[in-house]
Amino acid sequence: MFSYKSCQFPTQKTSILHEFRQHLFSIQVLSWVTYGFLFSYVKVSVAGMCRPLGGRALFWFGAWTQVGSAAGSFLFFALINFTGMFVPYNLDCSQ
Description:
This protein has helices at 17-50, 55-82. The radius of gyration is 22 Å and the shape is flat. By secondary structure, it is mostly helical. The protein is built from two helices and no strands. The protein has one domain (16-82).
């Protein structure tokens, strides 16, 4: 079983940059939560604008949303599996 504590480096707790890393992680989490909120808000707003146009407009909005999602999935599947753009990170904790 993988244990995070066994992979800590001895200098990690005494490093001056340790607190900076914690704050950077907090900023990253906050930015992703904000991004998710804004993305969802825009999607719901666009769907709300389609609502007065009738059910057909909502249908096409949903259909194009699914097409965009599928296109993004296929694109990243190809980038990850068929190019050398992303490589696995191997962490050796056996020390």
